[in-house]
Amino acid sequence: MGGPSGRRTDVRVSAVPLGSAMPLVFEDVQLRAGSVAILDRLTLTFNSGAPTVLIGPNGSGKTTLLRVAMGLVTPTSGRVIWGDQKCSAPPRRAIVFQRPVMLRRSVLGNLLFALRAAGVSRTEREPRAAELLRLVGLEDFSDRPARRLSGGEQQRLALARALARDPAVLFLDEPTASLDPAATKAIEDIVRTLSLRGIKIVMATHDLGEARRLAGEVVLLHRGSVVDSGPAERFFAGPLSDHGRRFIAGELLT
Q: Which residues have CB under 8 Å from 161's CB, separation 6+?
């Protein structure tokens, strides 16, 4: 498969076997901030396979759901259950935020730091970094200061850093927001490549066109609850809920 710059991307991505990580189950999960329910008794199952795309208006809970799944936020009540491990999360999961922070280092320096943090041995770091830079189409940028990259290039570097953990599950929080069409396509191409290699992608987006292009399953959130979900083809052909029909039509959900 071609990468973001037309190069081959047949490099190693050795994800943790999904059998040990999936399904990822949210069981009656609630997250409150005072009297406000950010996630409201949410029950949801993520299975292995094609990307699951979270959609919904601003404030619907997409980012919070990803943060809870990543273990960055502890729910007020309910449980997050990982596959056959039941209670403990798999060690290899990763998240890429909408606005990733670049270290004051080169592109290669950022990636070597991520590989060291992931426990990759010193002798393996540079070969692994070279593989990951080829995967995201940044092999010609290794010496460039990361903070001088374009927004799309920084997002590709953030994906490479996340892949340093060899994740079985990769969470993406609106990774193409504010990117131009060419940069968006580059990110989407990488997402497809990773999904084909067995990494489960759970991705939030505000772009319905992107959801149509990438999703195997769609989950529509509103006010911290799931108001519609199902296979992407079925969802976009005719949502089951009134919320889904209104959201696809561009109407404001209240």
A: 100, 110, 111, 114
Contact 89, 23 (CB under 8 A): no
Angle between helices 107-117 and 122-135 (to 10 degrees): 130
Task: Provide φ and ψ at 231, rounded to 5°.
Answer: -55, 140
SS3 state at 74: coil
d(CA 95, CA 167): 9
- For 29-88, what is each residue's pLDDT tens digit? 999 998 899 999 999 999 999 999 999 998 899 999 999 999 999 999 999 988 866 556
Question: What is the distance between the terminal CA atoms of the chain, rounded to a whole angstrom?
Answer: 42
Note the pTM of the prediction, 2 decimals.
0.88
Cα(113)–Cα(251) distance, integer angstroms: 45
CA distance 31 to 181: 35
Say how far apart CA 1 and CA 91 lie, in whole Å. 29
- Of the candidate ranges 6-15, 67-76, 213-222, the one whose mean pLDDT is the lowest: 6-15
Return d(Cα 189, Cα 1) in angstroms, integer: 9
Question: What is the fold, at CATH topology level, of the domain defined by 18-102+168-248?
Answer: Rossmann fold (3.40.50)
For the chain, the structural domain boundaries read: 18-102+168-248
Q: Are 199 and 92 in contact (CB under 8 A)?
A: no
Nearest residue to 173 via CA among 72, 42, 38: 72
Nearest partner of 45 among 22, 68, 61, 67, judged by Cα:
22
Could you tell me how far CA 248 lies from the centroid of its own chain?
22
CA dihedral 87, 76, 43, 249 (to 10 degrees): -140
